[in-house]
Amino acid sequence: MQIHKININGFFSNTYAITADGKTAVVIDPSSKKIESKLIALGLEVKYVLLTHSHFDHVGGVGVLQQSGAKVFCLDKEKPLIGSGDDLFEEFGVPRVYYNVDQTLIDGQEIELCGLKIKVISTGGHTVGSASYIFEDDEGRYLFTGDTLFKNTVGRTDLPTSSFDELRASLKKLSALDDMPVYAGHGWETTLQEERENNPFLRDL
After folding, report:
1. DSSP string, 90-127
2. CA distance 121 to 116
3. CA distance 104 to 5
4. Average model confidence (pLDDT) for the chain?
5. What does the pLDDT read at residue 121?
6. What is the rounded CA–CA span in Å between residue 74 and residue 40?
7. Which end of the chain is less enclosed by CB atoms within 10 A, N or C?
8. Alpha-carbon span 11 to 1, nearest angstrom
9. Secondary structure of residue 19 in the 3-state scheme
10. For the segment 39-72, what is each residue's pLDDT rounded down to a tens digit?
């Protein structure tokens, strides 16, 4: 498995392209329309897009990838936020991006896309339908947390559909997992063990 981290929008949102064969990819949170040219340069054809949540700074490139044939997945609870004011396009004065959800996912669901084994975890709190994803191959497991868990901190809970209590419950769920690398929606990579030891929001659970 190869994980390509791409950071190309003005809000420092991380996009991840994950591939098992070096040719086809699953993309998590394509943040900008510029993502398409970056993926072409990597020689990757995007078959699927997974959204951790629908805020404007994580979905700017979804439309162009869907127009190129990619299927778009998100958690079932997040779908109603898409296209509503709760996705924050208008609040931040960003031109709206239009796309459709091809399939919704549920907590605990296991899927296989592009030869990649993926487990869906409902991690509401930053938004009501935020999701995290565990990717697994023969070498290990890798956790993608969106804006739920960052290195040494967590996502905001002062936005539409946010809930600090729900976020705490989600963090407790993630903290109970075995140690693995963590790839967040903003900032740097970390591990669950590092966060259990150093992140005040996890130490406080």
Report:
1. TTTT--------SEEE-TT-EEEETTEEEEEEE-TTSS
2. 16
3. 24
4. 95
5. 98
6. 24
7. C
8. 27
9. strand
10. 999 999 999 999 999 999 999 999 999 999 999 9
